Amino acid sequence: MANYKPDLSCQNKFIPINFAEQILPGTFEYALCYIVENKLDLSGFDAWYHNDKTGAAAYSPAVMLKIILLGYAHGFISSRRMKTIFCS
């Protein structure tokens, strides 16, 4: 079983914004989250992670896919550019 970091997009401890409450139904971001979480089978990624007993936890493939697809939708094809936009 793969060891993933917890998805904290619904947390409200360190930031005053709950991401799940910020995206509005009918928007691209809402559709993207819905499709990645409910329609795509991402279980194939689990075979690549052999960190269940040793190693650090990895980011969830669902979270990474959402970031990459959102970046591509906004015209960012460089992961460094995505980092500066989404992580600042």
TrEMBL record:
InterPro entries: Transposase_InsH_N. The chain crosses the membrane at residues 56-73. Residues 22-82 form the Transposase InsH N-terminal domain. It holds the Pfam family DUF772. Keywords: Membrane, Transmembrane, Transmembrane helix. It comes from the Bacteria. This is Transposase IS4 family protein.
